[in-house]
Write the structure tokens for this entry.
Amino acid sequence: MPLLRRTLAASIALALGALSLSAQAQTTTLNVISGGSQNMVDYVTDYLGPLFEKLNPGVKVSVVGTGPDDAGSQKMLEKLQAQKAAGAATWDTDVIVPNQQKTGEMVRDGLLLKYRDSIPTGKYAVSQSAKQALGVNVDGYVMPMFESQTALAYNPDLVKTPPASYDELRAFVAKNPKSFGYNGLKGGMSGVAFVVGWMYAYGGNPETVQQGPYDAKSPAGWKKAFADLKSFNQQVVFTPGNAGTLDMLNRGEIAMGPVWVDMFQSWKAEGRLAPNMKLKILSPGMPGQPYYYAIPAKAKNVELAKKFIALATSPQVQADGSVRRFNWYPGIDANVVKPVLDAKVWNQLFVDVTPAELARNGKPFPLAPYFKDLREQYEAQVQN
């Protein structure tokens, strides 16, 4: 009997081992690479990935972060280029989340799949950034993960009628010196965005600067705009970074300044910013930037990748994930997200800046060569 029991136990163990190996063999891994800050990786790890796995038994979502800005997305670009050069039949990444600049380069290099019209949420991609990425036609290749936007934050106790345009802001600051603060060109991207918006207002040909083609002679016409900005800067307060602008606004040291909307809303939700603070996007526009969901041209699990992105860009997930969790503007049409958001959340995000105003005055950052010219001329003509 002991021998029989040992034999039976061994048989059961072998059977269980075979079942385990079979289950492992049936598990499909969806490989995701995300650029951006750690919170974007956490979003997939903690929320989107588990949700997708629950809806798709047998699928495991694996996500790796490559870091923010161009450097993070450059790593994805180089990885896809290497696999293309090696002639691999399939590539080992299924979904990528790159920034605008590198997405355009990937499309130009033939590294991405044109998939948007084959997913049910593709019709919700209505923003300009879903079609153009800093001058490159990316229409059909991407779905915006979210829209991150800059705006003018102001204290309504100190500013009864907020400026609606750069012209009105200049007039207000001339009458109320040191009421406005921003972090310049090197103190954070909200300050960069303010300077970019100034150049869209006064530098001439903003559509060309945003969409191309690049003309190396165009920046020669920016001298007056930069001279006016240098004079304007004599009447403002320079803040110590993106967070510094919000801090000084909350303490009443300035009455208004440019901020990232998601950061502004998060600070309000955390009680770090007075609840009466408000937002306004200055006309003719202030820039923002999305990150995109994209599929490599030879992804191994294309259909699964499409399902993943369709889930990520569904109205419910955009409401629960992008808006409620991170205070991002949705990457899809805000009007299809509204019905699944409670009124309080909608009002927090869209009462100050309506979807129509966001569509009208939310602008992209400049083409890379114009952006480089802008930074160089600012340093030469404004800082000196």
About this structure: Confidence is low (pLDDT under 50) at residues 18-24. The longest strand covers residues 143-154. Residues 244 and 347 are 26 Å apart (CA to CA).
